[in-house]
Design goal:
717 residues; alpha/beta; eight-stranded parallel β-barrel; six-stranded mixed beta sheet; 16 helices; 27 strands; 23% helix; elongated; hydrolase
Length: 717
């Protein structure tokens, strides 16, 4: 069943319409299993999920598809599957096990497993369309449905932690106020807690343990919707999407197709393992699982049915539920062929890019897994956005671990060149053709330290996870600034606040697509836990009771997203090319602290960590724009001389040295000296001085805001 790279076999028609299709007189169910001997539909009473009211045999109609039609399949009907076949050679059939339909639109938990439920998917969208936010204007906000609203004081308690709560006006007001455009939700597909966590009295809070790829997680619906039934749960989810769309906000789903909640052999047999284990999971000829996810199993997308399951799920959420994008967890797994090697031309990856139903959605990958050859950042190709871990690591190094090292050794380990690469869009990772918008820039994510903990802890503190602090990353590139964790030391606290401003400033002023982690905008802490996946508690829920310094940080985020929106030079669509005019690019010039062109020696010297970066837009759809960003990465103050840009007027837009953003700075001119605080940034808009007279060599007038030649002088990554 391996997919031929040149033929999209996963699109063949016999794989169409799997799951339940409703029609006059009931419904038809279609299930795929290449190795089964028999498949049964088990129909339960609407109220008593133990009471079987009918068993219907499915007919083998060829190509591995089993089908039956019955009037019993109607909205609200609970059902399951029983599948029998020859066990061995990688299969684990058991005709006594009740199994989920992989295409079920609703999943109910029950004491002996799960029940699929037929759902009426009708919904009135009221003419509301997707916002379709352009990539260059996209600011992603990664959050958890439950954690975002569980403690929000302005959201009614009945809606705390729910889909409806996320769409409440109070939450929408916050999202719009901080300038984000697209909310990326941690998994909302129906999921379960691993058996190990349950034994320890913990839960899988993040949700990276999928049970059903088509069903919304029912526990995130309001109690009223859950009481009303699966139809109401789906309506609440769609209602959330509609209200967010009305507010101009996109909804991106973090999707986990790399593995399922069935864990390793011996784990739960709830769906795919009992339907066709050999075809759905990667394994050796002897039936030993090939686990490239670290979760016990790996979905085998080299088989047509498994790949089609992924594609059909994406189509459903994009078309029927109107979501705006997907972030693919451990996406390298999806691109592994029948030999377990990653290829960007994998038929599933190509089908996702080429599918017209997915043409208008954002497709974001986490470009790695834990298998051999798992790290693939930069290799996914056109149409994909990639989490840029190189960006994360370099930015953390520059502002945190390098500063820590310099305190102890007297000099930082690296200069500013590699940092400048990331600031300018990571061309050395994604290449000229893909451009800066291939990079999803992030400094923190759900997995790892929060922003506040990144500047407050040198090491992880995960004892509460029940694994003796063995879980979670050991290399965090963090810096506690002198004391581990909480402190009353005013100097340390001030340095931590400025470090957070530097990290956020870098993130929101870099070329690429920025992603902010929920709560970082006001300095949320998880008390040093960098792997809080198993805590559904105050440790992970956002607190909306803020100290004054947190309100100040929030104002910085608002200022940064606004200046990003207002200055197209900060958000180029393409990379500029030396000696060419490239529309919607930013021509970049690099200066040292003296206002002179950066030399190669200064790019790479650890002793030199000060940079003036000029970016000038090449207009295509917006007015011409030019900015100057000054970066100073040492713990000593420095005076810088503004570069000699003819006719320029430098208007201060933002400074990380300010505890709270200010607006009263006097415009400056080329050659003026500016005092930079230790480890700080300052952003200027470069306007045309109305008093400047700038003749060129021939006496003709020139536009002082016009971009100069693109610079190809930049340090190593």
């Amino acid at each position: 069943m391996a997919i031929a790279a040149e033929t999209p076999e996963l699109l063949r028609s016999d794989l169409d319409h799997l799951g339940v299709t409703l029609h006059d007189g009931g419904g038809t169910i279609r299930v795929w299993s290449a190795h089964a001997d028999a498949v049964e539909l088990i129909v339960f009473d609407d109220v008593d999920l133990d009471w079987i009211i009918e068993s219907v045999a499915l007919e083998d109609i060829g190509h591995g598809v089993w089908s039956a039609s019955t009037p019993l399949l109607r909205p609200g009907t609970p059902y399951a599957l029983r599948v029998s076949g020859h066990s061995g050679h990688g299969n684990t059939f058991n005709s006594g096990t009740l199994l989920l339909d992989p295409y079920a639109r609703s999943v109910l938990s029950h004491r002996d497993g799960y029940r699929s439920v037929v759902v009426d998917t009708g919904f009135d969208w009221g003419g509301v369309e997707k916002p379709r936010v352009p990539l260059d204007r996209t600011v992603i906000y990664e959050g958890h449905v439950r954690g975002l609203t569980k403690r929000h004081p302005r959201i009614p308690p009945a809606l705390h932690g729910t889909y409806a709560g996320l769409a409440h006006p109070a939450m929408i007001e916050h999202l719009r106020s901080i300038g984000v455009t697209s909310i990326e939700l941690l998994p909302v597909h129906a999921f379960a807690s691993e058996e190990r966590l349950v034994r320890h009295g913990l839960v899988n809070y993040w949700g990276y343990n999928t049970v059903g790829f088509f069903a919304p997680h029912a526990a995130y619906a309001s109690e009223a919707a859950r009481r009303e039934g699966p139809d109401a749960v789906l309506r609440e989810f769609k209602g959330m999407v509609r209200l967010l769309h009305e507010a101009g906000l996109e909804v991106i789903l973090d999707v986990v197709f790399n593995h399922t909640a069935e864990e390793g052999i011996g784990g739960p047999r709830s769906s795919l393992r009992g339907i066709d284990n050999r075809s759905y999971y990667r394994q050796t000829d002897e039936g030993v699982y090939i686990d490239v996810t670290g979760c016990g199993n790996s979905l085998d997308t080299s088989t047509d049915a498994a790949a089609r399951l992924v594609l059909d799920s994406l189509r459903y959420w994009a078309r029927e539920v109107q979501v705006d994008g997907f972030r693919f967890d451990l996406a390298t797994t999806l691109g592994r062929d029948e030999h377990n090697h990653f290829t960007p031309e994998h038929p599933l990856l190509r089908a996702i890019i080429d599918d017209p139903d997915l043409a208008d959605v954002k497709k974001i990958v986490e470009p790695w897994d834990v298998g051999m050859g798992g790290w693939q950042t930069g290799r996914f190709g056109d149409g994909w956005l990639e989490w840029n871990d190189r960006y994360r690591d370099r930015v953390r190094n520059f502002w945190l671990s390098d500063i820590d090292y310099a305190r102890r050794a007297g000099i930082a380990p690296d200069g500013i060149g590699g940092f400048a690469h990331r600031l300018a869009g990571s061309a050395n990772t994604f290449g000229a053709q893909r451009g800066p918008l291939a990079s999803v820039n992030f400094v923190t994510a759900h997995d790892g330290f929060t922003l506040r903990d990144l500047v407050s802890y040198d090491v992880k503190h995960n004892m509460g996870n029940g694994e003796q602090n063995r879980d979670g990353a050991d290399t965090n590139r963090s810096f506690n600034h002198g004391v581990e964790g909480p402190t009353d030391d005013g100097v340390i606290l001030a340095n931590r606040r400025k470090a957070m401003r530097n990290l956020l400033g870098t993130l929101l002023l870099s070329a690429g697509v920025p992603m902010v982690t929920a709560g970082d905008e006001f300095g949320r802490s998880q008390r040093g836990n960098n792997n809080a996946y198993c805590h559904d508690s105050g440790l992970t829920w956002l607190s909306w009771d803020h100290a004054p310094w947190q309100e100040d940080l929030l104002e910085h985020v608002r200022r940064l997203t606004r200046v990003r929106s207002e200055n197209p030079a900060l958000r180029p669509i393409r990379f500029a090319r030396l000696g060419e005019h490239t529309p919607s690019a930013s021509v970049m010039e690099w200066y040292d602290e003296h206002g002179e062109t950066m030399s190669i020696d200064k790019w790479n010297s650890p002793a030199h960590r000060t940079l003036q970066y000029v970016a000038a837009s090449t207009p295509e759809f917006e007015e011409a724009n030019r900015i100057l960003l000054v970066v100073h990465g040492r713990e000593t103050p420095i005076d810088i001389t503004l570069p000699d840009l003819p006719g320029a007027l430098f208007v201060t837009l933002w400074s990380s040295a300010d505890e709270r953003p200010t607006t009263d700075a006097v415009p400056l001119r080329p050659g003026e000296v500016v005092a930079m605080s230790p480890t700080s940034m300052r952003l200027f808009r470069v306007d045309m001085d109305p008093d400047a007279v700038i003749p060129d060599e021939d006496g003709a007038w020139v536009d002082p805001t016009a971009a100069g030649p693109a610079s190809d002088t930049i340090g190593e990554a």
